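Hi P.,

Sorry for the delay on this. The queue was packed all week, but I finally got your sequence through. Input first:
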Amino acid sequence: HYFIQSNLSYVRHDIMTIWNLYLVGTILLLNRSLSEILDCPHPCVNGTINCNTRLGDYQLNCSFCDSKTRLTGKEGVIVSHDWKGINPGYPNRTSCSVLIESPVGSTIRLYISDFKTECSWDYLHFHDGMSPFDPTIGIYGGLLEGDRQSREIVSTSNALLLVFRPDKFVNHDGFSIIYRVDGCPGNCSGHGTCTAGVCTCEAGWEGAACSVEQCQCENLGLCVGGVCQCPEGFTGTHCHISLLSNWWEHLMSTGMSKRINCW
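Then the structure:
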């Protein structure tokens, strides 16, 4: 009887441990996926799309650019007709528009995940407002490449209008664009949290997108948590001092700084 009770307690303990790990993993995945730039290379099915993060898949709502669409959600994905579907490629000579609206005082940031249209003929227009007569942020066509942050578009108002105008001949894969109300540059690069469009960086990272490591290590030093871990034979903030040479070290004592000459 004793051993049965003991085994059952172990089983219960193991189940609770697994459940707690699952909950922690789920929370980490959710938090991390919301703070990273997402890549959504999968088709939009029944209003949802699977996106990739460093910790696994994350599901977002998706909408096709068909005719006229109005979106009011906090985040989602806009894809061209039949993106990554059975017959990929947008239809020729079929214009569409997507209007994204958010609460007054907020802004909208677009992260262009994939973009391929017929160069010089099929264009996607971005307007800072609710109308094609509002200021034009940009007009894009062809193959859009480069670092992710250079592929971001942000409004100055609480509305952003996308208008796609293909011609009647050649078509290509189309586009996949993530939008986020009060989104941050680079989604904080996975190294910070986003609040009202501003990144708060984790220790060891800085910059508007938390994409710059604070420590610049020399002599094969490694940056760990914003601090250089120096290889044998080197020391200093940046591992720039050889232990074979004379060097100065700062010591703190009772709130005062002392300089000690080390030989």
